[in-house]
Specification:
single chain; alpha+beta; globular; three-stranded antiparallel beta sheet; 2 helices
Length: about 80
């Protein structure tokens, strides 16, 4: 999953560069259970960034999480 946060001009400029064509999207099988857990984790990460923004703390503009490989990257 990928979480993008745009709170300033630089973030708003970066956002369009992260988009891709529908034909480039990964098509994989999903189950309701897996989708639900992923959506809940994404919501928690988004709330975390929002809370940091409200407190005036620096945010991570681009978070990538690979749940299958247990990889987490912040840019």
């Amino acid at each position: 999953m990928r979480i993008l946060c745009a709170t300033d001009g630089q973030g708003r400029d970066h956002y369009p560069t992260s988009l891709f064509a529908q034909s480039e999207a990964h098509t994989g099988s999903c189950t309701a259970r897996g989708t639900l857990y992923t959506a809940s984790i994404a919501a928690g990460l988004m709330l975390h960034q929002f809370t940091r923004w409200l407190r005036g703390l620096p945010i991570d503009a681009d978070l990538s999480v690979n749940l299958l490989a247990s990889e987490f990257a912040a840019a």
